[in-house]
Specification:
Blueprint (H helix, E strand, L loop, with lengths): L10 H18 L5 H15 L2 H13 L4 H6 L11 H14 L10 H10 L2 H24 L10 H7 L2
Helix pairs in contact: 1-7, 2-3, 2-5, 2-7, 5-6, 5-7
GO molecular function: peroxiredoxin activity
Keywords: Oxidoreductase, Peroxidase
Organism: Labedaea rhizosphaerae
């Protein structure tokens, strides 16, 4: 399977990718815990059916020390005992923020309030931006049919160093 287009070889796609990655750096350097960031990225990618992003973030999570048990349970996080209350709040916000069309009001006040109990304003801002960014990345990869499976941990970090 080949991608429909290599966005990095396109002038517009390449410029956009650099700016997109730069915006992502703001989130990755925030106070939102890395493990929470990875869980959010994986869950949104699962919901959206983005194989490339699911592959990338799962491999990056493994490389960062995430356990296989927790990775196996992300899609069933509500029934799993392996996530903290803060992680569960982030996953709930991720699901509602990703499934906007399913919730005519987007993220519910209840879900927002639970997340606010676990994250300060800076972390909440990072969480909102992260949900938006991963959903955008999912959509770009799905539209272009970027194939999954060849990602190696650290590839994104290597690309970010070129910025």
């Amino acid at each position: 399977m080949n991608a429909r287009i290599n966005m990095m070889e396109s002038e517009v796609g390449g410029k956009f990718a650099k700016r997109f990655a730069n915006a992502s750096l703001t989130i990755s350097h925030s106070a939102l815990p890395e493990s929470t960031q990875l869980l959010v990225q994986i869950r949104a990618s699962q919901i959206n059916g983005c194989g490339f992003c699911t592959d990338m973030h799962t491999k990056d999570a493994t490389a960062a020390g995430e356990t296989q048990e927790r990775l196996n349970m992300i899609a069933a996080w509500r029934d799993a005992t392996v996530f903290t209350d803060a992680e569960r709040a982030a996953l709930a916000l991720t699901e509602e923020g990703t499934r906007i069309a399913d919730h005519h009001r987007g993220v519910s006040d209840e879900t927002w309030a639970v997340a606010q109990k676990h994250f300060d304003d800076e972390q909440m801002a990072a969480l909102v931006c992260l949900v938006a960014m991963i959903n955008a990345a999912n959509r770009m990869n799905i539209i272009t049919r970027t194939p999954a499976g060849s990602y190696q941990p650290g590839m994104l970090a290597d690309f970010l160093k070129t910025l």
